[in-house]
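User: I'm putting together notes for a lab meeting next week and I want to include a structural view of one of the chains we've been expressing. I don't have a solved structure, so I'd like a prediction I can at least talk through. The sequence is below, exactly as it appears in our construct file.
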Amino acid sequence: MKCRVCREPAVIDIRRHNANFCVDHFLRLCRDQVAKAIDRHEMLSPGDRVLVAISGGKDSLALWDILIDLGYEADGLYLGLGIGDYSTSSEGLHGGSPRSGAYVSR
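Assistant: Thanks for the context. Below is the predicted structure for the 106-residue chain, given as structure tokens.
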């Protein structure tokens, strides 16, 4: 299985796109999809401040990282959901961004 873009070994098969991607091109695809959704739905403007609810899972952490990469001033706020071991293993993210408490209090 080879990456659709560079022909290097692929690590993921995206059936929706009928394509395989290496790590670098998969991350680029994710970033581009988020940017496209933000633009299409006029969700944010350049320079906007964004507070991302962080559960500790891969989805919320990936979104936070992508928003920062896209140039948004994004802070994370950890939400302890009280879901047994899942929440216990996520407690390392407790404070989110060092500024998230100050941001929420505004």
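A couple of points you could mention at the meeting. Strands lie at 12-14, 19-21, 49-54, 73-78. Confidence is low (pLDDT under 50) at residues 99-106.

User: Perfect, that's what I needed.
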